[in-house]
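Note to self: user wants both folds in one dump. Writing first protein now.
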Amino acid sequence: MPFQELFDETLNLNSTEKYELAVQLSPTNIAFCILDTIRNKYILLRSFEAEDDNYYTASKIGEIMQNDDFLNCKYKKTTIVAVAEKSTLVPIQFYDPEKKDDYFRHNHSLENNAVIIANKIALPEAYTVFEVSNSVHDAVASRYPNITPVHHLKPLLNHVYRTGRSFKDDYIHLHVEKDFFNLIIVNSYDLKFCNSFNYRNINDILYYVMNVLKSFEINRETAIHLSGLMERYDDLTSAFSTYIRRLKFSQPSGNFTFSYVFNESVLHRYINLFNLPNCV
């Protein structure tokens, strides 16, 4: 399987009780990073990519978790973020835990053999309700029995709010995953838009984004901040530059730094993974 590792030479497997582990699970990618809490510095990223455009099975996820040397160490803290297209935001004042399944089913059909999970979000004050397949949920529970996965919108929204509050006008963020993307618009602490869209090609992404911007009367001079599966000068970025004059790749920010082995493309690709300490 395609594999990537960025490894700081100061990492010590005998000192993992001083480290925090964050794991990100998506249908096509399993990635994790290690934060040295003494220096507040990220010192490792390891990523596994499913081959030939395939998707990971629960058994493959379980196999990686059982066999990876770093994932079998004991850490000061472990957090898991699940990348999932289907989710619903419920304002905190309207949330009732007994109606969790109803909130989800109001907007989405529940897949067979799936479990619905809810996470509390600080910014905005809401709950995100999402689904994880039973098999994946069981694979995580067998390795990390006391950890509830966090939906990727939790660190993503936290990042958008933290960054967007310094902008006088609209702050627009586009996060792209394998089969879907999130588009978020905030103005100060006002969430104006947050939705996910399934796509098949670049034209689908352009169509949805440009129509949302038109509906909010946002002009071409307003910057769009990018993260996820986008790279400088790739086909998607080049297509957007035809219509949007200012494209900026987002970088994680918080009370942490990065080892010299990390690069910009990794930082915006795994922005939700790196931003987990800000919100959990």
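First done. Writing the second protein, which came from a different request thread.
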Amino acid sequence: MPEPAEKDDMTDGRGAIRAGALPARPRLRAELMDFLRFALRPRPGRRLPGRAAGHGVWVDFLPNVRFTRLLQWAALLWLANLFVFGPLAVSAAEMGGAQHRLSLLNLPWMQALIWAPIVEELTFRHALRRPAMLWWFVPLMASVIVQGAGFASGLLAAAALLLCLAPLWSPSGAPLRGAWRLSWARRRQVLRWYPWLYHLSSIAFGAVHLYNFHLHEMPATLMPLLVLPQWFTGLVLGWMRVRRGIGASMLLHALFNAGPLLVVLLILHFAPGAAA
């Protein structure tokens, strides 16, 4: 007997990708245009072509996209942040006197490549497809972020991940109604406010990264400029989560973090004096 198809909370097709609008393997340009349309008018709608078959809850954690395409999106993010948003953030830091907490000689590699992609994606973007979980799951994951990477927070994150997969063990879904699924009336309400949900998730994602700085006496008006790179990256990750799945957004998040870390590794190897 085949596994049930995906049943998430956001199945309205208005403003979505029309069936057949994109080929089985859409070009990067087509995906880029879809992202721009989505960012201007966020609607959950259909998934991009190429999604794996199987139970939707499980498939949501699969990549559902080629690694080369994820690498292309990571490269676009690196370029946008290097030439557009990064310089604005640096200028704001210089004007406000903010200093980055991280040292090139003591970077949290495992936190950047594993902990942050999993925990931050579950916190800020998992509910973009399952908003019924907003009221209990997001606070749970927020407590993990507040604790920071560690053994206790790791256990709590693992428990939260298992809760995400709970519908797999309850195919009927009866015990999960209310905590995992929305009524049709609630879905219509969420769809009305969906643009706020999408954009606020990106703003919150950026705001959390203010912790990476010693702000000193920096004016509050300059603080949003410090996290412009994270805000824009959050927009792309949110689109990736909705169109491909939470697994794809986690992988893209990890790839995005890996780029600067690789540059630092090369600096430490070939020019350690510059790093110091």
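Dump finished. Worth passing along: Residues 1-6, 11-20 have pLDDT under 50 and may be disordered.
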